Amino acid sequence: MKQALIVVDIQNDYFPGGNLPTDHPVETAQAVAKLITKFRQEGKQVVFVQHIMTEEHYKLIPIMQDNSKGAEIHELVRPLAGEKVVRKHHVSAFVGTDLDAYLKSKGVDTVVVTGMMIHNCVNATVYDANVHGYKCFVVEEGVNTFPQKLHDQVIPAKQIKESFLAGVQFYFAKVLRLDDALNDNY
Asked: What does the domain layout of the chain look like in residue ranges?
């Protein structure tokens, strides 16, 4: 098993002061930072994904505008010089990018996916990783979302997160707790 850690869209717009703050973004990023440290120490690939909205999409959801502070990868998980950064314009990190080719060039067959947000970009990336033949893991503490309105009720972020984790675990990925991932209990 040759692993890579994929860090999806942990960008400033998802933090307090950003255009779309998520639920517990600092705690989520801190959990991911622990995984980044582990993967770096073990000489494993760490791939950072940065979502950049197209002009058309930015008009609908004004986040992650190219060259803005909000689109920058958050300082808690910033890539080092030479680490792979994949810029994307779609929900999946595999669509319209070189992510698959890059992972294959490094011999990666297993991905540990983290980031923001589980109901969109993390979820889509996990599904596509599976389609591309990768064994997938998602770290529970390393993903988040935000409360969302459905009709006349607000669905709590915790409920959305748990529902999507259960959904990906049904077939596409094994969901791990942070301690298990840090201790190689896959």
From this structure: 3-181
Strand blocks (E) in 12-150: 45-51, 84-88, 110-116, 135-144, 148-150
Q: Phi-psi category of 115—alpha, beta or left, where left has phi over 0 and alpha has psi -120 to 50? A: left
Judge contact between 4 and 10, C-beta under 8 A: no
127-151 tens-digit pLDDT: 999 999 999 999 999 999 999 999 9
Q: CA 94 to CA 126: how far, in whole Å?
A: 9
Q: For 25, what's the count of Cα atoms within 13 Å in the CB-facing half-sphere? A: 23
Q: Could you tell me the pLDDT band of residue 162, with boundaries at 50, 70 and 90?
A: very high
Specify the length of the chain in residues.
186
Question: For 160, what's the count of Cα atoms within 13 Å in the CB-facing half-sphere?
Answer: 20
Q: Is the dihedral of CA 44, 71, 116, 31 positive or negative?
A: positive
Assigned CATH topology for domain 3-181: Rossmann fold (3.40.50)
